[in-house]
Write a structure and sequence with these properties.
The protein is α+β, with helices and mostly antiparallel strands. It has 28 helices and 29 strands. Helix content is about 35%, strand content about 25%. The radius of gyration is 37 Å and the shape is globular.
């Protein structure tokens, strides 16, 4: 056992030695141009030229560009998208590389489902290429409050040259400031615009170190706006959302909240308690939409709409909380938070707003600032050092800088023991000193903890892998079609017609004959016949039926002849190969749709006139007469269009012979080379033995038709067999054959999760989700590891009887649900152990001992874990516990 003394008030100093390393990519040029036009419309023009130096740069970082915009008020135009390879070859980005999707942050926000994200997939990527992308977003007048931006100048890779251009109409004042870098704009004025050009060269990439300064205040940035902060906020707060009205449902909710509390406690509801309960109701019961306000033009829905839809953005939830408190007679108002270093009253850049809070004054208490997004119950004033608060209401904006310096200081010390498996035991003591203004409060020798509880780690690694479908069809129907044409008003077959003698008609009939000659089981033969629409209706209906009957008889004779010839070739009696054929013969009368489509696709100069004349006649008889008139006027109608409508279409459908599953399974083991690739993949699905599946998939590695599926599926079986390293290598092979594949991304995430690299796992699961795969269960496991237990249960919705669901329920305090899920989950040492933990938390002593004993019986190594698990601290001294763990 190794002992360490941890003193948590430690100063670190580092001497860092910079090393010259090659970046994954370099931005050779970035141009951002903002234009405020005279009509109030705003254009944003973006250009980037990015050189990719490593495989990682295009496989993981820059293979795609994502552009979010609002089609209702904005238009997106792609001006240029191409890749220049090292040899100078230019690869233009194809049309299918531009795909519009719903932005992920708007997926669960129905009101904002109109937003779009253009996904540009860059093509022709290899080490050394240069990507160029140029696009323009134009916003309608009035959509945005003004021309404004907060440009942090750094990117994830170094930048050789970055140019920001701002064009404003003459007479419009642009206020700006540049921070953490010394430069100024070049200003050029003409009759229409004043142009401000900011040029920055040699910008280093963002640091990848953790614990960077908050708000990115240390980075070079440019802030500009054509509005003051007062004007910008006035643009937003003039909306009806700031009327703070409540509907009857909201009023009832407030009344019931107060009534239930007072009935339960039999005391008058304290103002602060009531405010915190309203905060809890809004934060927990109203869904949060992660939609940034710039994408909605800072349009904010009314609190009633937020309430009725049970969801809103951060701003909408805040206004809802204000409305509910005002309805309860408690004065509240919204305030926005801006870092004081960035705030300038003359530069009204709304993207500088980092938070929105509710300012409220409980009876007989100091003014408080509360969040509508979380329920810490804490006054946010303690997190607002060096912030400026602005009242967010449709009145003259009051600026409220927070000047107080808070020296909240906690020193923790203690003796902790860390064993070879990094299990921590011991005690941690805290000395706290809180200083606010001239007031000092000290808290000494507070016992913080007896140790560390890591129950959240007690997951089972049953992440859901995804196997690729084999593509094998147990039943495959092969069809061939042919057409037979008829003379006008005739139903007898005439092979001397030019249409029947055409190469296309003869070729299709030959194909149908060849299919029938194979002797496969015939599914059916469909025959559909029509007449041209210039005759009398009843006559044409009968004519179409007669044509269908003529072709049916023709096909019967054809099949009889083919059977006779095959019987002779095989030396068998014809009765042995004859089969009952199902004919589906139908006459459809006059082919009006065929006529209209033929006219529209023809080269007739007056085709629109013909279509209009026909459509104008609602009476069928008059329509037929119009067509007869046209055959006199338009020769092409009589000679080229109508003859093609006098026809019968034949579709011959046969079942392709297949090996039985038993044959496929046997050949997979004895002669796999005799199987098709799809049959080989299908063979693996015929056994439940993971080792056998693994061997079959590996056999397919040498098949000439192999693709990513066999490597992916072998990896899935490798994961089942705990061959994690091999699975990772196989998924790498699969990814080379099929990039941007959600199935592969999910399975890479499973490998990472089973190695407990949850950050990497989450990244790949989210990629898989982006490509359309269901990763809910796997994301639930990630959420447990992040301490987001309620979110995990949302991901687990609809599932039950699984260990991890029970774990999430236990950790979120849903005790009954946890016990039910753990008891019906498959029995395992971990599940028994968790039932023992449940017993400890529920103060059920007998349950603790019963299930701890069962867990250790399955896995004796759990004795050492239980001995030091603080979940069982109350039982350490009990003889029964000691007997079980010793």
């Amino acid at each position: 056992m190794k002992s360490f003394i941890l003193i948590l008030s430690i100063l670190f100093s580092f001497n860092l030695v910079a090393q010259e390393i090659k970046s994954d990519a370099v931005y050779e040029k970035i141009i951002k141009e903002y234009t405020l036009n005279e009509d109030g419309s705003i254009e944003f023009h973006y250009y980037k030229k990015l050189k990719l130096n490593t495989h990682y740069s295009f496989n993981r970082r820059y293979g795609e560009t994502f552009i979010v915009y609002n089609p209702e008020f904005q238009t997106l135009k792609i001006n240029l998208a191409q890749t220049t390879q090292d040899n100078g070859n230019v690869v233009k980005t194809p049309e299918n590389a531009f795909n519009e999707v719903l932005p992920r942050f708007a997926a669960n926000a129905p009101f904002y489902n109109g937003l779009r994200e253009m996904v540009v997939t860059h093509t022709g990527l290899e080490v050394g290429v240069t990507i160029e992308l140029d696009y323009t977003i134009t916003s309608k007048p009035g959509f945005l409050p003004g021309l404004m931006a907060d440009e942090v100048l750094t990117e994830s890779s170094p930048i050789s040259s970055k140019i920001i251009i701002v064009n404003v109409a003459q007479g419009v004042k642009l206020n700006y400031k540049v921070l953490n870098i010394r430069t100024g704009p070049e200003i050029v004025k003409n009759k229409k615009h004043s142009t401000y050009t900011f040029t920055f060269n040699g910008i280093a990439e963002n640091s990848h170190e953790a614990f960077q300064p908050a708000d990115k205040l240390h980075l070079p940035r440019l802030i500009f706006s054509t509005k003051t902060f007062e004007e910008a906020i006035a643009f937003v707060t003039k909306q009806n959302a700031f009327s703070y009205k409540a509907n009857q449902s909201m009023k009832d909710a407030i009344a019931n909240l107060r009534k239930k509390k007072e009935e339960k406690t039999n005391i008058i509801y304290d103002d602060l308690d009531f405010i915190l309960d309203v905060q809890k109701m809004v934060a927990k019961d109203i869904n949060l939409y992660g939609v940034q306000p710039q994408y909605t033009g800072y349009n904010i829905r009314h609190a009633i709409d937020t309430w009725n839809s049970n969801g809103g953005t951060g701003c909408e939830k805040t206004l809802l909380m204000v409305s509910l408190l005002r309805e309860a007679g408690i004065y509240a108002k919204p305030v926005v938070v801006v870092p004081s270093k960035l705030y300038d009253e003359n530069i009204g850049c709304l993207s500088l707003i980092e938070n929105i809070l509710v300012m409220v004054s409980p009876l007989e208490r100091e003014q408080m600032y509360l969040s509508a997004l979380k329920t810490s119950g804490q006054n946010e004033i303690f997190s607002l050092n060096n912030k400026t608060l602005l009242v967010f209401e449709p009145t003259k904006q009051a600026v409220e800088p927070v000047h107080e310096k808070f020296e909240n200081k906690i020193v923790a010390n203690g003796s902790l023991e860390i064993n070879d498996e990094f299990k921590i035991t011991g005690e941690l003591m805290v000395n706290a000193k809180v200083i606010k203004g001239g007031k000092v409060q000290e808290f000494n020798d507070i016992k913080l903890a007896d140790g560390v509880i890591v129950t959240y780690k007690n997951i089972t690694h049953d992440e859901k892998t995804i196997s690729a479908p084999s593509g094998y069809e147990k039943v495959t129907i092969i069809s061939e079609n042919a057409t037979i044409y008829f003379r006008q008003n005739k139903h007898n077959l005439n092979w001397n017609l030019d249409l029947n003698k055409s190469g296309e008609a003869k070729s299709k009939m030959d194909n149908a004959d060849e299919l029938l000659a194979k002797g496969w089981e015939i599914k059916d033969i469909a025959i559909d016949a029509w007449a041209s629409p210039e005759g009398e209706i009843d006559f044409n209906n009968n004519l179409a039926n007669d044509r269908a009957e003529s072709v049916t008889k023709f096909m019967e004779k054809k099949i009889a002849g083919i059977n006779k010839m095959r019987a002779k070739e095989l030396g068998v009696d014809i009765s042995e190969i004859e089969q009952e054929v199902k004919y589906q013969a139908n006459g459809h009368g006059e082919d009006w749709d065929g006529f209209m489509n033929a006219v529209r696709s023809s080269g007739l100069k007056d085709k629109n006139t013909i279509v209009n004349v026909v459509n104008s006649q609602s009476d069928a008889t008059k329509r037929e007469q119009e067509i007869r008139n046209m055959t006199v006027i338009y020769k092409e109608v009589a000679e080229e269009i109508l003859p093609t409508l006098r026809r019968a279409e034949i579709v011959v459908s046969c079942y392709e012979p297949k090996r039985s599953d038993e044959e496929i399974a046997e050949l997979a083991g004895t002669n796999p080379d005799s199987l098709t690739y799809k049959e080989l993949l299908h063979a693996a699905s015929l056994t439940d033995d993971h080792e056998a599946k693994y061997i079959i998939y590996r056999t397919a590695f040498t098949h000439p038709d192999r693709d990513w599926k066999t490597y992916n599926n072998a990896a899935v079986e490798g994961i089942e067999l705990r061959k994690i390293d091999e699975a990772e290598n196989l998924l790498g092979q699969a990814e080379k054959l099929s990039s941007n594949n959600g199935v592969i991304e999910n399975n890479i995430g499973v490998v990472a999760a089973q190695r407990e690299d949850y950050a990497k796992a989450e990244k790949h699961f989210l990629n898989a989700q982006k490509y359309g795969e269901d990763v809910s269960y796997n994301m639930g496991i990630i959420s447990i590891q992040k301490g987001e237990y309620q979110k995990a249960l949302t991901y687990f919705k609809g599932l039950d009887c699984k260990h991890n669901i029970g774990l999430a329920q236990l950790l979120s305090g849903k005790m009954n649900e946890a016990m039910n899920n753990l008891k019906c989950a498959p029995e395992s040492d971990k599940t028994f152990y968790m039932l023992a933990v449940y017993g400890a938390r529920a103060h059920k002593e007998e349950m603790v001992f019963e299930y701890l004993e069962k867990a250790i019986a399955k896995n004796p190594s759990l004795k050492e874990k239980a001995k030091i698990d603080r979940e069982f601290i109350k039982y350490y001294d009990m003889p029964a516990f000691s007997t079980i763990v010793n």
